[in-house]
Each structure stands twice: as structure tokens, then as C-alpha cells.
Design goal:
It is built from 4 helices and 3 strands, in the order H-E-E-H-H-E-H. By secondary structure, the chain is mainly alpha-helical. The chain has one domain (3-196). A hairpin with a 2-residue loop joins strand 1 and strand 2. The longest helix has 41 residues, at 3-43. The chain is elongated and about 85 Å long.
Length: 197
């Protein structure tokens, strides 16, 4: 490897290590602080404090959540989004882990990026499914939303962004996969050349 490429790989490894640490910190913060606080705010409501929750395309606000069915539905929405977010972050961390170890054109990052692309696609799909289900469940009174509670379930114009991000990440995984294939072909040609000599 020439000096220029060696310098580039060192930069990638350094950035990968820093980004891996940042992802680890985000995962720890979410699990240890944000998630427990979210569940506390759903189930333990203090008198005189208004409840407000905005999860992507669905938002709830009001004095108190007195309906058990609404509490359960909000928990389902929070758990789905939280699980998806943590799994995405875990894959991003794993990609940076591979890069920190200098594994650029290898199967590991390709596999993780594909998984991340599928999760982004699932997240974009949930941005459509969750508002539709909220309206349906409220309409057929499976989820009782009290008159004191205001809610919106909307489709945002930024919905395209989730699908675009999924497409870009999937494309990136295919590009890395092509790079991996070219690297393997070059290694095979080099081995054949050494056998001939």
C-alpha cells in the first residue's frame, strides 16, 4: 500500500473509533436515561403537569392519560420506535467498529449496511402504518382517547426522506459489495501471478 492510501486508511480507522465511541454513548444514554424517563412520564403523571408526547407522525398532548388502552397504545408506539432506533444505532456502531479495525472492503460492513438499509425502510414504513393504525384504533374505539387529550396522526412531507435514506444506504452496501468482489478478484490474480513466477 502506498503512503497516500495508508494515510487514508489511518484516517478512516481513527474516525471509525471515534464514531464507534459516540454510538456506544448514544446507546447507553438511550437505554439508561431516555427510555426509563419516557416510560415514567407515561405511567407516572403529576397533577397540574401537562402530558405531551411527539413520536414522529403521532403526537398526544393533554392533562392526563386516564385511558389504559391509550397508555398501552402509546407504550407500543414508544417500544416499536425505541427498538428500531436502538437496532439501527447498533448496526451503525458495528459498521464503525469494522472501519476502526481497518476492515473497509470486507463482508462485515456490507452485511451491516444492508441490515441498516432494511431497518431504515421498516422505519419509513412505520411512519405510514402507525398514524393509520392510530386513527383506525381510535375510530373503532379500541383505543379510548379522552376528550381532554388532543392527538394528531399525520403523514409528513419528510416521509420521503426515510425511504431515500434507506435507498442510499442500500446502494452504499452494494457499492461496498462490488469493491469487496474486486478486491477478492485482485487477490486471486495476485496469487495466480505468484504461482506462475
Amino acid at each position: 500500500m502506498n503512503a497516500t492510501n495508508e494515510l487514508r486508511v489511518r484516517k478512516i480507522r481513527k474516525f471509525g473509533g471515534l464514531a464507534r465511541a459516540a454510538c456506544t454513548a448514544c446507546i447507553a444514554f438511550t437505554v439508561l436515561l431516555a427510555a426509563p424517563w419516557g416510560f415514567y412520564s407515561i405511567f407516572v403523571q403529576r397533577p397540574g403537569v401537562r402530558f405531551a408526547l411527539d413520536i414522529g407522525p403521532v403526537s398526544f398532548s393533554g392533562d392526563r392519560i386516564e385511558s389504559l388502552s391509550l397508555q398501552i397504545w402509546i407504550v407500543v408506539i414508544v417500544v416499536l420506535n425505541l427498538a428500531l432506533f436502538l437496532r439501527m444505532l447498533w448496526h451503525v456502531r458495528a459498521v464503525f467498529d469494522h472501519l476502526a479495525r481497518g476492515e473497509i472492503y470486507t463482508a462485515g460492513p456490507v452485511r451491516r449496511l444492508r441490515a441498516l438499509g432494511r431497518l431504515l425502510l421498516a422505519g419509513a414504513g412505520l411512519q405510514i402504518i402507525i398514524p393509520a393504525l392510530t386513527l383506525l384504533l381510535a375510530g373503532v374505539h379500541v383505543v379510548e382517547i379522552p376528550a381532554t387529550m388532543h392527538y394528531t396522526a399525520r403523514l409528513s412531507t419528510s416521509l420521503f426522506t426515510g425511504f431515500a435514506a434507506a435507498g442510499v444506504v442500500m446502494l452504499l452496501s452494494w457499492v461496498l459489495d462490488v469493491g469487496l468482489g474486486l478486491r477478492e478478484e485482485a487477490d486471486e490474480l495476485r496469487r495466480d501471478a505468484e504461482l506462475v513466477v
